Amino acid sequence: MFYYLADMLMSRFSVLNVLTYHTVRAGGAAFTAFALTLLFGPAIIRRLREMKIGQIIKKDHVADLHALHKGKGGTPTMGGIMIILATVFALVLWGRLTNRLLLASTLVLLALGAVGFLDDYIKLKRKHNDGLSARAKFAGQILVGLVLGVYLYFNPVTVSASAVYPRDIIGWERLETALTDAAGGGESLAARIWGRFPEKVKGRLLDARGHERLDEEDRRAVLLGLNGVLRDRTLHSAASWTPDNPTPELAGFLARGFPALSEKEVVRANRLLLEAAFPDAVAQSRPDLHTKLGVPGFKDLFIPLGFLYVLFVVLVVVSMSNGVNLTDGLDGLAAGVSVISIITYAAIAYIVSRADWSHYLFLTYVPEASELFVFGGALLGAGLGFLWFNSHPAEVFMGDTGSLSLGGAIAALALLTKQELLLPIVAGMFALEALSVVIQVASFKTTGRRVFRMAPLHHHFELLGWVETKVTMRFWIVALLFALMSLGTDRKSVV
To answer: DSSP letter at 430?
Structure first.
């Protein structure tokens, strides 16, 4: 709401322009969600208690563990409602709701929240820890992942070749210099581009020559000129200029010849020509990466999946939502680790939304990902607000409503920022918790022995004698180390 209000009124009140900044809106969303959770949290907790929506502690648990946790019985659960409501309300106020990535991540949050809510509600009605059947819960998670996977397959989030955006320019002054140097004529590609610029644009650039920085009007003029040549079938002349080392994609277009290309292919080919002509000024675009997985630590190493990418999305959504669900067993544990993962992916979203930063760090450029920074801010504020009440001794538990929705949101952030393979590092603590369950089950079924005293992993350390707060704090520390490790994973060229 604030974004659109600023967009309408900032021509009259220039100070409102600040409300269009992603950093301001992300901060505003975080503060709003946090404040809403603190303000309405006590009333929600009280209402949950009145409805007798409390945690049921199984008496058939490991005896020592039951003794440790029996005091939690009756604590209100389904607190994940607080996280979802605060996040959505903050996004309505601060988000740009026409952004499709913001909508996709929010819908995943709501859809998996609905699955978790249904599970919690059935537990409430039955007065038992058994809610939805495992098959039904997995079916809901798979359905959400499948819908998201199909959408991403047919609607790539990587850079579109249909236009040149401000964030595509990584060197404004270098671009201006290259263009104005070509003003003298010739048959170079830069000269041909210059020759097709409107006279008004040429005049602005020539007047700006020698200035330390291009102002906003000058930059708009450059973009106007560049976008104007994208559909020009005569832009390239093999007799005058051909890139020394064209990419395979560009080489294919040049071999076929521009007359044989479709309109969409012409736009793409010209975009690649711009990138080849101004390699230090125009960011590289790779729209074919939407079904490929970038390997952390390597610049040009990608795993092509094709249509299997849909199944991969399903795997990520199901794994992540269950990872958070399994971790949710101690006061503040799942919420705290989730907050760390959310902060990390929010930072990644901001980086990959900028052509200059993503180009410098060799990360896949996702132009629309900037709004995920706002989504991360809202989710962060809501998560911290919930943690306020969930810290030991907890006044409320998130339930499956919260754990499934948080897991889905983190999975969506990983998928929509095209940093899917970074997820096991960013969310390393969740991965360890889930892995402990897999190892325990596999060992018991094959050998009849348990590797851990109890799985998930946090219960193992409880039974070793660690107090609950010590387990939680130490798991937070490990989660933070994983997050720092992921942010330090730069890419290197593969020879």
So the answer is: H
Q: How far apart are CA 214 and CA 294, in angstroms?
A: 34
Tally the residues of the chain: 495
Average pLDDT over residues 461-488: 92
Please check whether residue 7 is in contact with residue 20, taking contact to mean a CB–CB distance below 8 angstroms. yes
DSSP structure string for 50-107: HTT-B----TTS-HHHHHHHGGGTT-B--THHHHHHHHHHHHHHHS-TT-HHHHHHHH
Give the model confidence (pLDDT) of 195-244 as tens digits. 888 887 787 777 766 555 667 777 877 888 888 888 888 888 766 677 77
Q: Is the pLDDT of residue 494 over 50?
A: no
The torsion angles phi and psi of 303, rounded to 5 degrees, stand at -105, 110
Closest C-alpha to 346, from 115, 84, 1, 30: 30
Helix (H, G, I), strand (E, B) or coil at 278: coil
End-to-end CA distance of the chain: 49
Q: Output the pLDDT for position 250.
A: 85
| HEC secondary structure over 351-402 | HHCCHHHHHHHCCCCCHHHHHHHHHHHHHHHHHHHHHHHHCCCCCCCCHHHH
CA distance linking residue 405 with residue 410, whole number of Å: 9
Minimum mean pLDDT range among 76-90, 229-243, 309-323: 229-243
- 333 close to 471: Cβ distance less than 8 angstroms: yes
Q: What is the C-alpha to C-alpha distance for residues 241 and 379, in angstroms, rounded to an integer?
A: 50
| DSSP label of 215 | -
- Asked if residue 405 lies in contact with residue 112, where contact means CB atoms within 8 angstroms, the answer is yes
Q: Name the least confident of 6-20, 81-95, 410-424.
A: 6-20
SS3 assignment, position 463: helix
- Which neighbouring-strand residues pair with 293? 303
Any idea what DSSP says for residue 140?
Answer: H
What is the average pLDDT value for the chain, to the nearest integer?
85
Question: Nearest Cα to 371, choosing from 132, 104, 115?
Answer: 104
CA–CA–CA angle 243, 247, 159 (5° rounding): 115
- What is the model's pTM? 0.80
Tens-digit pLDDT profile for residues 318-344: 999 999 999 998 999 999 999 999 999
Domain boundaries, the chain: 2-159+305-419, 166-285
- pLDDT, position 495: 34
